[in-house]
Amino acid sequence: MDHEKLLSAAYAAVIDQKGEDPVLLDLRELTVVTDYFLIATGRNPNHLKALADHLLEKLDALGLIPFRREGDEEARWILMDYGFLVIHLLGQDERDFYRLEELWYGAKRLTPT
Q: How far apart are CA 51 and CA 103, in angstroms?
């Protein structure tokens, strides 16, 4: 499966679970660490865990297993690393403080189909 379909599936999974303000960034021209970031906000720790679990289920069905998943214990910032895609699920306070979209201001914003 190509990256575009996987990115669309991840984005759709966030929308399905009512993730707030999802943003998909293309980082290929800015870093070698990963190709894409998917950033979304959860309303509370339970919502963040539900978002992460839903993403894990949907992407696993497509054959994607994360290299690592961090942040579940406190559920204020959950990171899921798929190599080419790193997913950041943050509480509103964490998203406002770290402003990942501004940190990577040169990244192209993608609109999945």
A: 23
Integer Cα distance of 56 and 71 in angstroms: 14
Q: How far apart are CA 46 and CA 7, in angstroms?
A: 24
CA distance 43 to 67: 26
4-14 pLDDT, tens per residue? 999 999 999 99
* Annotated domain spans of the chain: 3-110
Domain 3-110 superfamily per CATH: Beta Polymerase, domain 2 (3.30.460.10)
Check: pTM over 0.90? Answer yes or no: yes
